[in-house]
Amino acid sequence: MSNPVITQPGAGSYGTNVQTGEWSTGLCSCCSDLLVCGLGFICPIALSCYTANKYGENVCLACVPGGMAAMRTHMRLTYGIQGTICNDALMTCCCGIFETCRMAREIRIRNGET
């Protein structure tokens, strides 16, 4: 006879409700990475494609409706940043270029590129 299961397996690296982190930079912290913000204001779609690529996603994700919101949600859950899916959708819809710049800065900071 096998032993009974006493404890359940632990949660994965994301998808839990335990989120205590914050974004490394503010929404309007454009001066903290002029390269990212310059690219974002000159050609926003190029920055979106760059961000998706640096995060390990297909560059076409930036062209899919809701793609950046989905990536923001995944990024937030992976990095343990507080927030909700509704907030992710609103931030990418209403503050598009500013949020894309923040996402790109976050990736660069976490990858040690800045």
Task: Sum this structure up briefly.
Helices cover 51% and strands 0% of the residues. It is an all-alpha fold and 114 residues long.
Question: What does this 3D model show about the protein?
Answer:
It is a single chain. This protein is elongated. It is an all-alpha fold. The chain starts with 33 loop residues before the first helix and ends with a helix. The chain has a domain at 33-109. The chain has helices spanning 34-42, 44-54, 67-79, 85-94, 96-110. Helix 1 (34-42) runs antiparallel to helix 5 (96-110) and helix 4 packs across helix 5 (96-110).
Mean pLDDT across all amino acids:
86
The outline comes out as: elongated
SSE order in H/E notation? HHHHH
Report the sheet with the most strands, covering strand number, pairing sense and barrel closure.
none
Overall number of strands: 0
The level of helicity is 40-55%
Total DSSP helices: 5
Termini Cα gap: 57 Å
Family: Belongs to the cornifelin family.
Protein name: PLAC8-like protein 1
Organism: Carassius auratus
InterPro entries: PLAC_motif_containing (IPR006461)
Which keywords apply here?
single chain; 114 residues; 5 helices; 0% strand; PLAC8-like protein 1
Helix and strand arrangement:
Blueprint: H1 34-42, H2 44-54, H3 67-79, H4 85-94, H5 96-110
Helix pairs in contact: 1-2, 1-5, 2-5, 3-4, 4-5
